[in-house]
Amino acid sequence: MEFGGNGGFHGYRRVLPQNSSAGTKAPEMPPQMNHNANTIDDIECTVREQDRFMPIANVIRIMRKILPTHAKIADDAKETIQECVSEFIGFITSEANDRCQREQRKTITAEDVLWAMSKLGFDDYIEPLTLYLHRYREYDGGERGSLTGEPLVKRAAADPGAYGYMTFPPVPFPMAPHHGFFGAPPMNGFLKDPSNAGPSQAAVAGIDPSPQCKEQV
Amino acid sequence: MKRPGTYSGILSGGISGRTGPHLLPLARIKKIMKKSSDDVKMITGEAPIVFSKACELFIEEITKRAWNITLQGKRRTLCKEDVASAVITTDIFDFLVNLVSDSAKSEES
Questions:
Q1: I want to staple A201 with a disulfide (CB 3.0 to 4.6 A). Which of A13, A42, A189, B26 is the partner?
Q2: What ipTM score was computed for the predicted complex, to two decimals?
Q3: Cβ(A173)–Cβ(A159) under 8 Å?
Q4: Where is this region: Disordered (chain A) (predicted)?
Q5: What is the pLDDT of residues B31-67, one digit of tens each?
């Protein structure tokens, strides 16, 4: 493998094993300064660059949800959006962190993040994010309560428009087809929505709107 | 067939690169949050989860806008310049202006 600034903005060269935990140095310098680095610096920069961005495959997957099938995406476009995502996270986090400091709190919460997004103009995101967070909290609370998912079942039965992808014990409720709500088609047995039903999952899940469904796993 | 692991897998960032039900890895998000400034100390477990969804919305929005520019140019390949144009023409993406113009400069050098 060759190192050296040959024009690639990112280092996808796997110099070290996926040992992100080894990248403990805080990168003081911005990405633009890495271009003319020598070999050793370049290795370190490569590791840090992988830490600094979302995995490109995930980014591409999300992009493809939006684009028509015939659309092509240039590699540099993918990388640019990857960088933009990291910049977005940093931008929002800084604002959220400033608020925490003003209020003399040490921990950035989800509410701080939402507040920062609203302040910085991303109002359109607040509603879907609030809903997402709400669903997460509902099912997270249920999950922690029981491994069999018993509280989840009871809760889900009462909640038709549920956000099912977060739960692992298969629960019989229809999935709300919110745009972009979940990236991948659900793998669990959401049998009330026939388009999502998978026969193998059904066998495993034994989904049945009756009391015995709580004994999955 | 991927069988979902325990719920704690989500909070610790997924299993060996997989993200569980999230599209984006939580551990990576947390790292990026911490690097945003030196004095980011603690982050609740929920914050990366909110970001996971927010980044998805962000990518969708910037992709949509960039693709519109691609279509205006009667092309079918979304290129970096389309992304740059989308950034420049969208107020809330002002924080990205330097990033996309720096990218353009580095390509020329």
A1: A189
A2: 0.80
A3: yes
A4: 1-37, 193-217
A5: 999 998 888 889 999 999 999 999 999 999 999 999 9
